[in-house]
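Here is my example:
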Amino acid sequence: MPWLKRWFYPLFALSAVAAFGAIYTFTLYFHDLKGVASSMSMNLVMSIAFPVFHLSRPGREGLSTRAAWLKMVGTLAGSVFLATWWPAQFVDGHLRTHPSVDEPTTYGFMYFLYGAIFVFDCIYIGLCLRDDRERALTVNPRAS
C-alpha cells in the first residue's frame, strides 16, 4: 500500500494526538484519576482488534499463540486485582486520595469490561490454536 507509506507518519502523529486527547478528556469527564476505566477500555479495544488483525493477516506474520495466552493471563490477573483493589480505594463513598471524587454507584461497567476482554481474548486464542492445528496438519498430514 504505497499510500500508507506516504501517510504513515502524519497518520501516526494524528492518532497519537487524538489518543492523548481522548484519554485526557475521558479522565476529566469520568473522574478516572487512577486510570482504571480508561486502561481497561483501551484493553477491550485491543482485545477486539487482535482477532480482526488475525483474520485480516494471511500467514499470521507477527502473531503468536504464546503472546495471546500471555495477554489473557496478564489481563485476567489485572482484572482480579482491580476488582478487589479499586472498590477498597473508597472510604465513606469518596476516593481516599481525592475526596471530591464520589464512589461509583455500581461497578457494573468495570465487570462488563473484565468479562468482555476475557471473551475476546478467548476468541483470539481459539483462532491462534485453530491456525496452529492447520499448520501442523499441513506440515505433517499424519498428525490427524
